[in-house]
């Protein structure tokens, strides 16, 4: 009837209003998280085949929420992107990574490299390269000691400008890793066109090793191709010894996963490496 129709409209309005309110609340909370410095960095080791030497670590963002405790990035990074806040937070991540890396270098771990995730929006920002250059100089870090983890999303709109930026990064000595390799639609065409140094085999392919025939075939083929192309391969999500054994047989270069270590806060990671 006419009446229910009207009620439905009003009910819908209220719901919309409520979800709008929640949106604003979350946006406020995330803005405040920046002001109150509630973000922090965790570090997950990437080890060599012997499993002993920590050469590199991936930097992973966390939010120390005043009420909910440590929040994982899958829950808030999409919202940082949505509100444009990934730009200031991304700058903080780069700056804090360089600052902390210098602390570890000065403490004697002078060979350590950090691998830093960069979102597509961050990479596309016109100041991105300049910001990194200033960061390296300010913290006296060599480009060789930094790797940037990018996903396919970076080049979707403008391949030539992506290549220009990547070339400039490589001039600075910075290595470029293609993250979540194999999960996108055009991973292979990216390899052909972009100056990539490292492949990160996505954990979804590592999971089923060695018994899942598809995972095994995909990983084996990727490893052979990477060796031909002179690319470094990092396997992510290595959780057990049979996965490790399979990857070792394929001569994977670096291993990352719970088998070796969870992502660690700065104190725990310092204890591990120093
Ligand atoms: P990612 O770049 O693929 O990072 C790997 C994720 O796998 C991390 O989740 C890590 O904790 C998790 N992981 C590591 N080893 C294992 C394992 O053995 N088994 C399983 N099941 N998982 C493992 P995390 O830290 O929750 O990060 C999730 C995603 O959030 C990242 O995926 C990345 O896309 C994004 N992210 C994290 N930090 C940053 C950042 O600083 N900037 C940007 N733009 N994105 C970030
Ligand atoms: Ca990553
Ligand atoms: Ca990944
Ligand atoms: Ca992933």
Secondary-structure topology with pairs:
Blueprint: H1 2-35, E1 39-47, E2 54-65, E3 69-71, H2 77-82, H3 86-106, E4 113-117, H4 120-124, H5 128-139, E5 146-150, H6 159-171, E6 175-181, H7 187-193, E7 198-201, H8 203-206, H9 213-229, E8 232-235, H10 241-249, E9 254-255, H11 266-273
Parallel strand pairs: 2-4, 4-5, 5-6, 6-7, 7-8, 8-9
Antiparallel strand pairs: 1-2, 2-3
This protein binds ligand C2E and calcium ion (CA) (3 copies).
How would you summarize this macromolecular structure in one to three sentences?
The chain has 274 residues and is α/β, with parallel strands linked by helices. Helix content is 50%, strand content 19%. The mean pLDDT is 93.
Describe the structure.
With 274 residues, the protein is of the alpha/beta class. The model has no long low-confidence stretch (mean pLDDT 93). Strands 1, 2, 3, 4, 5, 6, 7, 8 and 9 form a nine-stranded mixed sheet that branches. The longest helix is centred in the N-terminal third of the chain and has 34 residues, at 2-35. α3 (86-106) runs parallel beside α5. 50% of the residues lie in helices and 19% in strands. It has helices spanning 2-35, 77-82, 86-106, 120-124, 128-139, 159-171, 187-193, 203-206, 213-229, 241-249, 266-273; strands at residues 39-47, 54-65, 69-71, 113-117, 146-150, 175-181, 198-201, 232-235, 254-255. The radius of gyration is 21 Å and the shape is globular. It starts with a helix and ends with a helix. The structure holds ligand C2E and calcium ion (3 copies). Residues 58, 117, 149, 179 line the site of one calcium ion (CA).
